[in-house]
Amino acid sequence: MKYRLRAITREEHLAFVARQSSVSHLQIPSWGEVKSDWRSASLGWFDDEARLVGAGLVLLRSLPKVRRYLAYLPEGPVLDWAAADLGDWLRPMTEYLSDLGAFTVRMGPPVVVRRWDAAAVRAAVADPEARWLRDVTPSEENPAARELVERLQGLGWRAVTADGEDSAAVSQPRYVFQVPFAGRQLRDVQQGFSPEWRRSAKKTWRAGVEVVRGGYEDLGAFHRLYAETAERDGFIPRPLSYFQRMWIALRNEHPDRMRLYLARHEDEDQAAALMLTVGDHVWHAYGASPYTRTDVCPDHALQWRMMADAHEMGAGVYDLRGITDAVSGDEQHLAQLRHRLGTGGQAVEYLGEWDFPISKVLHKALDLYIARRGG
């Protein structure tokens, strides 16, 4: 089948998203407003009966002094990735974006490759010989994903790697940690917690930690905790204005698209996080917990309240976002991984990001530009 691709309206895009069980929060129209330093457009695939059967949010950004663009579809587009005629889906996209002036198209197919349950990851962390999650036998594997890799390569797409010679830095995490909710009662989720997590939860309750939902006016308190977390963990924080823009854009699109939670103890904010929701997929995003209060464990209280609310909303999956696939080495990383393991969830590997270089010269310039900026 030949598919026709054209720009679609915000309303068309949102109607398509509403028909899907899960779409990344990076693939909804409002995300283009959040990323205000990029141009954005909604693209739609139509079949021979003029039905909208696929959609994607594309972000466009030019290199300095170059009037051509990197066209980026983070964790998208949303289309039939199992289709035998994959080229008939992707060729119209690369041709359309080339006509817009793109020199490279980058996408992140939302296709799961492998899953490792908590027991498998714990065993890998405890094994002194284990270094990478990818070398650990998975609990579940998707054979179709391997076939998809071969088909993408045959169509001229290149896998983006963190250290590849001809690929710019990876933008979105390939490995994430998720807690499956579908078909489970909340008590079943809680029973999957590790003993350490249960003990921490009891400390939280005994200490009287209160978790509240915040509003726009509380984003400043969230950002203070987030900035302190960034200083402790050594990453560059986004400005407060970014989260204020996110709040307005996402909540104007849907009132429950974004929530803010804060954990308080003795009238002091101790931890905070954002919850993002599209369909039955809920993300715990931008966690801010700068203090190591093992006596009251505010982060455990925060996490449990958010999980309980997500379950009540009908979430099928609670997503704690990115992890690396290293299971040895840096103790700070391992502490973060152990904390997530306490929820009883799964490590999940996606297909990763892929580039289609339209101009090989400018694509190489993109690699060099991002390398100089440190990603």
From TrEMBL:
Keyword Cell wall biogenesis/degradation set for record: yes
SUPFAM superfamilies per UniProt: Acyl-CoA N-acyltransferases (Nat) (SSF55729)
TM ranges: none
InterPro entries: Acyl_CoA_acyltransferase (IPR016181), FEMABX (IPR003447), PG_Glycine_Bridge_Synth (IPR050644)
Keywords: Acyltransferase, Cell shape, Cell wall biogenesis/degradation, Peptidoglycan synthesis, Transferase
Family that this chain belongs to: Belongs to the FemABX family.
Name of the featured protein: Peptidoglycan bridge formation glycyltransferase FemA/FemB family protein
Organism the protein comes from: Streptomyces chilikensis
